[in-house]
Amino acid sequence: MAERPAPFWRRLTNSAGLREPDRGELATNAIPFSPPTARVPRPAADAEPAGATPDAVDSEVLLAVWFAREQDDMLVWRTCLPGASTAEIATRLSLVPASFLADDVAILPLAENILEMEYGAVGSTPPDRRGQEVLRIVDQVRATGSAAARRGAALVLWLWASEDLNGPLSVPLSPVWYGRAMAALSFRLAAVVDPAEWVRTADRRDEAARTFLLWSGHLPAGEDEATARSILAMRDSLQQNAALAQTMAEHEHRLQVTKQLQEARAREAAARYSNE
Amino acid sequence: MAVPDPDDPLALAEYAPGGTVALTDAERWPTLDVAGAARLDAVQRHPLAPAWVHRTGDRLTADGVARAQAALPVTGWLAEHLAIARRLPAYRRVADTLGELRTWPTVTRDDLLENVSAFVPLDADLDRMIEGSSSGTTGRALQIPDDIEEVARSFHLLVTLVAEQGIDWRPDPARMALAYLVHQRQAFTYTSSISSFGQSTMARLNLHPSQWPAPGQRTGFLLDQQPQVITGNPTSLAELLHPDLVAGLRPLALFSGAMALSLALRRDLEAAYGCPVIDVYGLHETRPIAASTDGGPFVILDRRVHVEVLDGSGHPVAPGERGEIVVTAGENPLLPLVRYRTGDFGRLVDVAGRPALADLEGREATRFLALDGSLVPCVDLTQQLQAGGARGWAVRQGVDGSVTATVVGGATGQIGTALRRLLAQPVTVTAVPTLLDLGEGKPRRYESEAPGT
């Protein structure tokens, strides 16, 4: 890579403020991913490195953006297709160049460049409708002012772009779900786990890889829906954060009540007896 | 899919016959026996019956029948109610600050419009949910989660109120138990069996002449059914003063709701039928709150309802002073409301040792004079304003008959066209950006100074 600089880096260097990495200058020196054999207990909050967990206000803001999308994860699970393995995705995460997570990265130009490469690579005319959707979401990321969301978005962009540098995934991703995956990692996961942890820590890397696959419309290779759901539920930092889990439960409640009201309206009313 | 009448430019799809029929009869009336089904069928297929728009039941199971017949206990209900409400999503961020009722913030209709699910308990049994729309005269339609058994129980509240007048209302297989009357251009109409009242029949009937094409059909049907009790609003109850009906109907009691019942109409109805006329004050959101049997103050009902009267800044007014009626309502388990601002105004007084609401304002029964001389009830306008997507409005008719409509949101062109057709005259429609532009609190949304309205 260093011997023959790709257009990839030239473009990003010019427009998004990224520096072409030296060999081995990764966000982590962690060895390529190997699945944890058992869930590692999460460190107590006061033992977390500074900045490891987004602050509460940040989290609420990001989750509000996520919940406003009214995504129904049950539906997403039901429509997932077999995809790449979590190991593949996790390895890509561990290979992210440090410059992607730097504070001075201009996330919107970075997204524009990478999407242009992506859509160019599949022969579409950029920016198409889906590309515009992703850019809208990245602009939302920028608007939140959240460093966690920005890093989360950058990591998703890296996962898409890494095919140029590290070869294609065993099962290609569908651009149809790029926007959804971008939102899920930038707003839902980044709200509760700083993206730096997605790179540094095996459990969190696995969580990020699984989250990415899910919202990209894929089950991890070799897993059926029940297995994949069970493992992700065990990893899910949002569900394990009591306060934020309550926010999530309320969001799901809202979806459920709204759905039931619509269904009840579509079915038929019940007899009533007087004016109210 | 329901198709509105192609010849009627004001027809709305949801009122097309059969438009929202989805269940089987076994689901509508799980306990219906052969005799009950025969009674129901006789009403449904009566030769003078109107074209029913809807088919609907009370959906009560055998256990549900027993529960619906019993009023919920009221001892200690408020503390229990606040404990439930404290766990609602709506209060999560302030739950620690909530103590006695007076420490709770008030809730408005806009809060429910914004996110009604925040007021539905997280552990509520949503399988019992039915959807109720609160349209009435209070603005954009609000979808309300109603509870099947609570709706059924509301029938037995009527039985109790009749009993308090010394009248024994029991199922009579030879008579329809209840006729629920409306008088509007379009309405849901249906007949049903009341599972918890001897499987007696009831019907929601639209007295509008357009629904009864044959001469004498309306009178003939009502006289044949002989409803024991009749409910409605002032507009529909006024139709009962037709001499043919007065001569033949023998109701045990009449109930009025939704809009203010004038003393004159009350007296006319009492004189015509010689039975109690009970005016019930309530909102769909809160369920029935109070009742007046004599045209005086509305006595707060002995059920899970607590009434306060607050000033503009949300503080209780002095006893007997006028203010906004704020209700804590615990009958509907799917919508346990605390300090709900009704937008209605009145004074809290004492009537024979019971709290009551006097000088109640906010339930105007307004009618508009159309160019052809007919009187159009405001509910007909409400349907078209809501169909046009308006979130709020104020419609006024001057003494010269001219009509202006001020609306918030919606398609003003569509609304203007619909109102012009309804009233057969030009209507000036003006859009304003917010509900506040209509005036503070619940705006006086319909007003007509035209002669005869």
UniProtKB/TrEMBL annotation, chain A:
<dbReference type="GO" id="GO:0016787">
    <property type="term" value="F:hydrolase activity"/>
</dbReference>
<feature type="region of interest" description="Disordered">
    <location>
        <begin position="26"/>
        <end position="53"/>
    </location>
</feature>
<protein>
    <submittedName>
        <fullName>Phosphohydrolase</fullName>
    </submittedName>
</protein>
<keyword id="KW-0378">Hydrolase</keyword>
